[in-house]
Amino acid sequence: MTLSPLLPSSPARPATKIAVVLRDDLLGWQVANVTAFLAAGVAAGVPELIGEPYADADGTAYLPTLGLPVLVRAGDAATLAACRARAVGRGLPVAVFTAAMFSTGNDHDNRAVVAAARAEELDLVGVALHGPRNAVDKVLRGTTTHP
């Protein structure tokens, strides 16, 4: 398999970055759930970010994962809305998780609750994005390190 140009072929600093921004009032289980959901969205939306499969010394095969670290940041509702708007404005791929999605149990209903609100009205609890390092840094303006 040929390495993706989005992934570093050595320990060098990658040219792109993956970030997840979570609302700062989420419960522990919600943090884990939203982060996993959004990271999967980045993986599905930008499949070139998937690294090579893993294998242990015994030859047991394991699934590949994202080939870049995922930066996890935090902010209030207004900060998440601003991050979403900046990412969309820069043309970066974005995944969203809204508060209403906690009450659904499937992908169909998740898409329906997102489709029911205009972009500015989304009750965001998480946003994920991928893009060039500088662009992602500008989108993340106003966020803090997640505790």
From TrEMBL:
Family matches, as InterPro entries: DUF2000, Pep_tRNA_hydro_II_dom_sf
Entry-linked Gene3D superfamilies: Bit1
Superkingdom of the source species: Bacteria
Protein name: DUF2000 domain-containing protein
